[in-house]
Design brief:
The chain is α+β, with helices and mostly antiparallel strands. 47% of the residues lie in helices and 21% in strands. It has 20 helices and 18 strands.
């Protein structure tokens, strides 16, 4: 039901407490928090899987390393036996040796009896690419330093792939008393078990310099890994075995290495952490999808449910913002019977009360009071003050009934007040002791930051607009008489009287704790009030003080009406009648503001004020008569309503 048609009742009961709604929401949140707990459990399971994978990787590394170590040991043992048989007698069978050791491509040995003499034994079943041979002079010259190291007692392995263009390992080892030997090994077939059943697990062999010896993937035959990942750690640490988690090129790996005894080589085994956790992550992902689906349904439910709370609160917030701006015509509806519904109903009632209250005072003052910007202490301000009334009100009021008189006064005020507010003025009060008087102020609150001259100009613009509005109203009333009665008999035009002054006054809250109003007091106010009366004497409609004319300078077209002796003043006071606005910019503002008002005619507006308006007080009086004479209007054709 619309809130404007259903007032708040103090007996309204809360059927569904807001606390109960919150309990439901929190309970739902706790239920779905269990989904988060299940995700945490999955994470912990992933940690266990990771530990198991690390152990498996380490075990695999040791197993493969043990096999390679055994292989190298067998090769060294068989080769030394072959060489020993040859040096002891002529019983060495070269063909039988290569038949039993098909992975050995060649054997070179330095003769201990003749220094520098090297014997070469080539496996006829192994083909060296490009017709090259380990017994060639180029290889022997390049390997002189390595042979010296081997003769000195070192055993080490080099990658021969770059030299012979085939997968080949070259093992240097000491033989005899002061000689060295070299055995060439097939770098592919003996190491088939490097390829794990898990295609993502990788084992490769490097030597003491970090050169790759055996790598299950092509393209790495000559790589040096001394500065990469786990190889660097193995070469720096020097321990026999180790396992760790490391990152290489942005990829996290579980890694382990084993140092092979006697050959200076290291076997490295690694597997991407993502591969280890892939299965677990698949389960976690499925759980997450299920949890997300349930959570989405829960969020949908909570969202639908929470609208019963969020929408009214948002509407209240918007209404509160509108109320701060002085707009009380907000649209609120309340259907629920909880605390929010009660609050909405109360808020609507408060808005109606403030709206009605604001009609009895000034909107600007209400806003300042609402913001706490008004104080009980007075403040001296320079203000422009205008008193506007209906001249000869006593004669006019005798021709109306009680209700007709109220309608007439309200019609006058509804036309005058917009002239004040559109120029930035404030309607301070309506006075009724001498008829109907409107007291208006410019610069009272000090909010606009304008200068005294700007306030005075705005005040005079408002008065000139009021002149045009009254002429429009007289033309409208006269036309109404002509249409209704067929004659202008009994029609009395409305005459406006306005007094204007500018000066210093005291602005503040006047009254008691029970009743107060914000207004201005002082001699400046009294003088503005006295300026209105002489309009009857001079047959004028807008009078200003000499001080006001000095402030506005050449901005106005004025005529001096003479001097007045006022009670409390030592010297006679010069009084000026306002004819028009001389300043073209201000004159155009008047016309623009008049055209924006309802119930005004563009032609009448321009005859009363603005660039095409009167130039003398005689022109002003002629304009009054033009739009107050029913005989003239009957010939021109009437307009408007009474």
């Amino acid at each position: 039901m619309d809130a404007y048609t259903q007032p708040c009742s103090r007996k309204t009961r809360v059927r569904v407490p807001l606390g109960a709604k919150l309990v439901i929401i929190i309970s739902s949140f706790l239920v779905f928090s269990l989904g988060a707990i299940s995700v945490l459990v999955s994470i912990l399971v992933s940690a266990d899987v990771r530990i198991s994978a690390e152990d498996h990787n380490f075990t695999l590394n040791r197993r493969v390393a043990s096999g390679v170590e055994t292989f190298f040991g067998t090769v060294l043992s068989n080769t030394r036996t072959f060489l020993d048989l040859g040096s002891a007698s002529d019983g060495r069978d070269e063909a039988l040796f290569f038949e039993k050791n098909p992975y050995i491509a060649a054997v070179l040995s330095e003769s201990p009896e003749q220094a520098g003499r090297v014997s070469a034994f080539i496996n006829p079943g192994f083909t060296f690419a490009g017709g090259t041979s380990p017994s060639g002079g180029v290889f022997l010259e390049a390997s002189e330093t390595a042979l010296e190291r081997a003769a000195g007692g070192e055993t080490f392995v080099l990658n021969g792939g770059s030299r012979f263009s085939v997968p080949l390992l070259i093992m240097f080892f000491p033989w005899a008393d002061s000689g060295g030997a070299v055995v060439f090994l097939d770098g592919e077939k003996p190491f088939q078990d490097f390829r794990s059943k898990n295609s993502e697990t990788l084992s490769f062999l490097v030597n003491e310099s970090g050169d790759v010896l055996v790598y299950p993937e092509p393209g790495h035959g000559t790589d040096n890994q001394a500065n990469q990942g786990l190889v660097k750690t193995a070469l720096e640490r020097g321990d026999r075995n180790f396992q760790t988690v490391y990152t290489d090129k942005g990829i996290e790996y579980l890694g382990a290495y084993q140092r092979l005894s006697g050959t200076g080589t290291v076997l490295v085994t690694r597997i991407p952490a993502a591969a280890v956790l892939r299965g677990t992550r698949t389960v976690v992902r499925r759980n997450a999808f299920v949890s997300a689906a349930v959570l989405a349904l829960s969020i949908l439910f909570i969202s639908l449910f929470s609208r019963t709370i969020s929408r009214p609160i948002k509407a209240l917030a918007a209404a509160s913002s509108a109320m701060e701006d002085g707009n009380y015509r907000f649209s609120l509806r309340y259907r629920s019977r909880d605390e929010i519904g009660l609050l909405t109903s109360t808020f609507i009632g408060m808005g109606h009360g403030l709206e009605n209250f604001e009609k009895f005072t000034n909107k600007t003052i209400v806003r300042l009071a609402r913001q706490g910007a008004l104080t009980r202490t007075g403040t001296a301000r320079t203000v422009a003050i205008a008193f506007i009334l209906i001249r000869d009100f006593g004669v006019l009021s005798g021709r109306f009934t009680a209700s007709g008189l109220v309608t007439f006064v309200n019609a006058f005020l509804s036309r005058i007040v917009p002239c004040i507010t559109c120029t930035g003025g404030i309607v301070d009060k309506f006075l009724t002791q001498d008829g109907v008087v409107v007291m208006a102020l410019w610069g009272e609150t000090g909010e606009d930051g304008g200068s005294p001259r700007q306030h005075a100009l705005a005040c005079v613009r408002s008065a000139l607009m009021a002149r045009a509005v009254i002429c429009n109203w007289n033309a409208e009333r006269a036309a109404y008489y002509l249409r209704k009665k067929g004659t202008g008999k009994g029609f009395s035009p409305v005459k406006m009287g306005c007094g204007i002054n500018i000066g210093e006054a005291i602005a503040g809250q006047i009254g008691s704790e029970e009743r107060m109003e914000y207004t201005v007091i002082g001699d400046t106010v009294n003088l503005a009030a006295r300026m209105e009366g002489p309009n009857d004497l001079f047959d004028t409609d807008i009078l200003i003080t000499e001080h006001t004319r000095k402030i506005l300078g050449a901005s106005l077209v004025t005529e001096e009406m003479g001097s007045l002796e006022l009670k409390g003043k030592e010297k006679p006071l010069r009084v000026f009648s306002v004819v028009n606005m001389e300043d073209r910019g201000e004159a155009e503002k008047i016309i623009a503001d008049l055209d924006s008002l309802r119930r005004t005619d563009a032609l009448i507006n321009r005859r009363c004020a603005g660039p095409l308006g009167p130039g003398t007080m005689a022109d002003v009086r002629k304009t009054w008569r033009l739009y107050a004479d029913t005989a003239i209007l009957s010939r021109k054709g009437g307009r408007g309503r009474g």
